[in-house]
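Lab notebook, design round three. We kept the backbone fixed and only want residue identities now. Task for the bench partner: fill in a sequence for the structure below.
Input structure tokens:
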């Protein structure tokens, strides 16, 4: 698989969140990194791709040996247009999209490309801002419209519908970052109680959501390990024995 940068001239890049160096941005990245660190160690394969936020090693804890970041500009390892991935079909085991869908004019195409390059049973991890949260309120009333507030916040329910239409099954996810979007670091550090109570008292009001989806292919037959097949044969034989201990013949 080639990791050389694309030589074609891509179209102008979509807007991307640039405020990650602020206290609020660092707080968000730390919470998102923690979710990825818990999720990716249990995902296996050979090839993984992170689209967006190339400066953040969200797949650092992954056991997949070959991992790349892709974006229009450095520090991405692969510089290419994520709307037309320079990859063959059915090759990736894992694709991560941290805040990629909110800063593009064509989120459907990004998802279609992710589905195309993922192998059957491949995993897709999505992180997005929740419009039905304090972060969504700040976006609606923010007059400066500076990143990340100038993105198009898409609800988790809408993304789930799009994924289902493409052929994904949602197998995990959740909400996080229940703290108000404070701009000062010492205010954010005092929000531990809010973060701990968020999942219990207002579970859908988190500032960000995570979605864990798997690519399903209609008509695909999953081949089970040999030891599982042998166990099933033994169970079937035991269930179809006659009282004299002879197997039934059909």
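Proposed sequence:
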């Amino acid at each position: 698989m080639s990791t050389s940068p694309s030589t074609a001239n891509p179209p102008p890049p979509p807007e991307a969140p640039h405020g990650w160096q602020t206290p609020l941005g660092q707080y968000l990245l730390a919470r998102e990194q923690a979710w990825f660190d818990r999720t990716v160690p249990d995902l296996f394969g050979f090839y993984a791709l992170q689209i967006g936020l190339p400066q953040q090693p969200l797949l650092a804890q992954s056991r997949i040996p070959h991992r790349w970041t892709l974006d229009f500009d450095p520090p991405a390892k692969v510089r290419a247009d994520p709307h037309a991935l320079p990859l063959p079909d059915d090759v990736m085991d894992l694709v991560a999209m941290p805040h990629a869908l909110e800063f593009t004019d064509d989120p459907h195409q990004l998802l279609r490309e992710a589905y195309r390059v993922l192998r059957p049973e491949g995993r897709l991890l999505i992180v997005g801002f929740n419009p039905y949260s304090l972060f969504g309120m700040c976006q609606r009333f923010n007059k400066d419209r500076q990143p990340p507030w100038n993105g198009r916040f898409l609800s988790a329910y809408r993304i789930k519908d799009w994924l289902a239409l493409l052929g994904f099954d949602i197998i995990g996810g959740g909400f996080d970052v229940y703290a108000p979007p404070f701009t000062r670091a010492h205010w954010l550090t005092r929000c531990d109680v809010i973060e701990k109570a968020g999942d219990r008292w207002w579970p859908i009001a988190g500032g960000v959501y995570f979605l864990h989806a798997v690519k399903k292919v209609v008509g695909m037959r999953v081949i089970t390990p040999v030891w599982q097949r042998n166990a099933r044969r033994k169970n079937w034989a035991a269930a179809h024995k006659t009282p004299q201990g002879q197997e039934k013949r059909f």
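Keep this in mind before ordering anything: Residues 23-39 form the longest helix (17 residues).
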